[in-house]
Amino acid sequence: MDFALSDTERDLRDWVRTFVRRELVPLEPEVLRRERRGERGLRPEELRALRQTAREAGFWGLQTPSEYGGMGLGAVLTALVEIELGRTFVPFSFGGAADNILFACNEDQEQRYLLPTIAGERVSCFALTEPGAGSDAKAIRTTARRDGDEWVIDGEKTFITNGNEADFAMVFAVTDRAKGADGGVTCFLVDRDLGWKSELIATMGEWGPASLVFDGVRVPARNVLGEVGGGFALAMRWIGRGRYLLPARALGACERLVEMAMEHARTRHTFGTPIADRQAIQWMIADSAVEIEALRWLVLHAAWQVDSGLDSRHAQSMAKLYGGVKANEIVDRVLQIHGGMGYTRELPVERWYRELRLLRIYEGTDEIQRRTIARNLLRGYASVSGVLG
Ligand SMILES: Cc1cc2nc3c(=O)[nH]c(=O)nc-3n(C[C@H](O)[C@H](O)[C@H](O)COP(=O)(O)OP(=O)(O)OC[C@H]3O[C@@H](n4cnc5c(N)ncnc54)[C@H](O)[C@@H]3O)c2cc1C
User: Fold this and answer.
1) Which CATH code is given to the segment(s) 107-111+122-230?
2) For residue 162, which atom of ligand 1 is closest to its CA?
3) Is the separation of the CB atoms in 324 and 360 below 8 Å?
4) What is the CATH number of domain 7-99?
5) Fewer Cβ atoms within 10 A, N terminus or C terminus of the chain?
6) For 246-272, what is each residue's pLDDT tens digit?
7) Which residue's CA is minimally distant from atom 43 of ligand 1?
């Protein structure tokens, strides 16, 4: 059993670590100031410039296959990158990425959707959730009706990330009610100028998803992504693309937060001694460190299963569940250690507190992950002895 990083893994991790320290962390005070004023933390031109700097060092399209100009990184390498990016709240991601399901585009769609998305010229959004269908995604009611060479889409989507910024949406609609999710849902590539409307939803986080309305939107038949009836499988592929990635970012945030808590605990004195000398504070730090370590191995183990071609769904659900629950407990402890200062907007702790809360909800709530894990165990698909048997 070898837990060491290879030279490639260490080099890549170290490059991103340095990039975060040199390029992103110095932006943090300004990002906080802007967000307090209700503005975006990073301006589009700043994001472009940062992505260009990274690109010049070869960091472009982390998981985009090399034939599309990307790095084609595996899951473990990508997780290592995400952990480092998580160490800052500056809203950065490397350029050159596209939703995994866009690689199902045919040649004509590649030119219109996939390639411009990789190039950063077009922005996509993934539109599955509806007011009446979140965890129970099979209950979607948006319909698409064939009319000659077009499909006519009617319905409403909600909580769609990038829904207010995107210029095209990957929309999942029922095309055969009798078949439902089993062959009766289709994915459409729908340009904004075909007539759908979006409205921002204010959330406790710094960025808001949107609700989308499709009122008789006519979409050319050539905009079906994949096969008619193959939409639900595509949706599950998008959601399952990397449940290890969200907890990986949260893990980086937890590392940084606990470092901040330790720094504060060493320098803050009460009753004549640093609070770091108090057992109450030490236990919070110790528990957080143990949980961070456990999360690291859950994340990397799930990523290793992906790279090994194993069925990683059980491991990914465990990483997502544990990451969401523990990151929230850890940020709460870190806020507590900072006392009143932790509650202010002078420090980023409350910002992380609000942001990390989302991890327990999107891309499968805690309860849905538990349901998956318990089902796998009870039906004998997975064992409590883990992969070692
Ligand atoms: C900021 C944000 C961004 C998002 N981005 C996107 C996006 O880009 N695209 C997209 O399609 N969706 C997106 N979503 C939607 C997200 O995936 C859903 O909110 C999530 O799946 C939960 O669905 P719901 O909100 O309808 O809650 P519900 O499904 O109504 O669940 C409500 C509660 O009941 C629990 N529950 C539900 N079923 C069960 C069960 N069987 N057993 C036990 N408990 C259960 C849930 O865990 C939850 O606690 C986003 C959501 C948010 C908040």
Assistant:
1) 2.40.110.10
2) 8
3) yes
4) 1.10.540.10
5) N
6) 999 999 999 999 999 999 999 999 999
7) 367
